[in-house]
Amino acid sequence: MTTNLTEWMTRGRLEYEHVTSRTRVPPMWFELAEGFEREFNRWHTIEHMPERLGVPGFLRGRRYIHARGSDRVFQLYEGRHIESFRSPGYLARLNAPTDWTNRIQPGLVKFTRGACQTLISVGEGVGGALVTVRIVASNADSLEASHSLTAAAPAIARLEGVTAVHVGQHVPHITKVETAETLLRPIATASEFNFVLLVEGIGVPDLEGVTPKLLDLARVQGAGSLETDIYRLAYLLDDEG
Fold first, then answer.
1. Widest CA span of the chain, in angstroms?
2. What are 147-172's pLDDT values in tens digits?
């Protein structure tokens, strides 16, 4: 294997690590308003994710459901380059929402998203569950935080039941564009994090068992907060092209 530092929401490696060639952007956290859950799952599976994967540069989409409540959702797309997520093709889709999208988007509440640049990505495949950690660090500590998180990734990847680790640094300007689709949702939360740590695992119990250890390993000096959640994989779609 050869070292290959590229773009993502995270990237890097040591001799026993594998670095993917994908960019993971943007992570999205949101909740579903009462009464929207069933229709959201139909829309997201049948229309929304296939539509997104039809945009050039989109390679994979994933939908996760919170381990403790089916009304809390985490969504992740993977692409060739961070610019794929503000490309003319993508913006055209965002500015021409379908009738179904018009009905669903108002039910997505407490919406937080943010494009991220990959710092390191360790591991292959897709785990059955995921820990997300949103990290707030002061501007003065950002460089130190990026080095600390990148250095911690290999040790986190060695924890029992962990299958992959990804670290990304938030790039706010990529997703700040206002579109017809964003206007359909209640006001989204602006940048609430500087870094995101994604830890994939075999299943929810495995990740619940190692979360205290991975948080200790990921602890960043001067970090304002570490907001942690565990999700199970609900749906995944790859670009067949």
1. 50
2. 999 999 999 999 999 999 999 999 88
Tokens found for residue 131 = 């820990």
Q: Report the C-alpha dihedral over residues 212, 128, 11, 169, rounded to 10 degrees.
A: -60
Tell me the three-class secondary structure of the chain, residue by residue. CCCCCCCCECCECCCCCCCCCCEECCCEEEEECCCCHHHHHHHHHHHHHHHHHCCCCEEEEEEEEECCEEEEEEEEEEECCHHHHHCHHHHHHHCCCCHHHHHHHHHEEEEEECCEEEEEEEECCCCCEEEEEEEECCHHHHHHHHHHHHHHHHHHHCCCCEEEEEEEEECHHHHCCCCCCHHHCCCCECCCCCEEEEEEECCHHHHHHHHHHHHHHHCCCCCCEEEEEEEEEEEEEECCC
Domains and CATH numbers, the chain: 23-238 (3.30.70.100)
Average pLDDT, the chain: 85
- pTM metric for this prediction: 0.87
What percent of the chain is predicted at pLDDT more than 70?
A: 85
Tokens of 18: 């594998």
